[in-house]
Design goal:
mainly beta; SH3 type barrels; four-stranded antiparallel β-sheet; 31% strand; globular; SH3-like_bac-type; SH3b domain-containing protein
Length: 119
């Protein structure tokens, strides 16, 4: 079971009232198709995701800008640290440290199994 979010989720109807600039990739957890639910009042996306709290496995893992091993490395996530998983598919997981980022991709295999992460 996931831990409760350490931030407030939007309440009521969510909408935008004007033009919004997209953040640079790797910064905030916003893509054209998905965005962190805590950013729903700031950014428009097709879907908003309530992240799952997951834990990095036994080894440090690089946070990549794109879901490829030859992509730019943005940061290193420490073994055993908690992250927020937003979208996992094709062997990669789009993750962030929170709604203010940073965000990027890690191999799904670098996460502890879902049943073993801290509740």
């Amino acid at each position: 079971m996931s831990q409760p979010a350490p931030y407030d989720l939007p309440d009521g109807i969510v909408g935008l009232t004007g033009a919004v600039e997209r953040p640079e990739p790797g910064t905030l957890p916003v893509r054209a198709d998905l965005a962190h639910v805590a950013l729903a009042q700031r950014f428009l996306a097709v879907h908003y995701v309530v992240p799952h709290i997951r834990t990095i496995g036994d080894a440090d893992t690089p946070l990549m800008l794109a879901p490829r091993t030859d992509s730019e490395e943005l940061a290193t996530l420490s073994a055993g640290s908690a992250i927020e998983a937003l979208d996992c598919s094709g062997g990669w997981c789009w993750v962030c440290r929170g709604p203010e980022g940073p965000t990027g991709y890690i191999p799904t295999a670098s996460l502890q199994p879902a049943d073993d992460h801290a509740a």
